[in-house]
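Issue 218. Parser rejects a valid record. Input:
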Amino acid sequence: MKWQWPVGDGTATLTSRPNGGNGLMIVGKLGQDVRAAGPGRVVYTGSGLLGYGQLIIVKHNETYLSAYGHLQSVLTEEGAAVTAGQRIATMGNGPQGSPQLYFEIRINGTPGNPLTLLPQR
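Output the parser choked on:
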């Protein structure tokens, strides 16, 4: 699968999840476009998962899911098909109160290192 960055610019920092695996915290601007990193179907939107704020999860295939957390607004709905690069949300404030996106790629249910899958910037 060919992946795209979910935001066009911003500093990305690899973070370790308390439950294992990795994700990226991408600093940006409040309201900045968040785009699908690959084609798939939206399987979750909401704020019911602790620590992610407003969240979207996209299922790309039987192996890969991507998660987009700390969103200001959600521009898609559960069940919707999305294309790579499609605008799906806007960036909100993270736990520190500054604009950032939490981005994760799950491989067979486990958060992997997105930097090994995303293209070089």
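Fixed in the parser; the record now loads. The radius of gyration is 13 Å.
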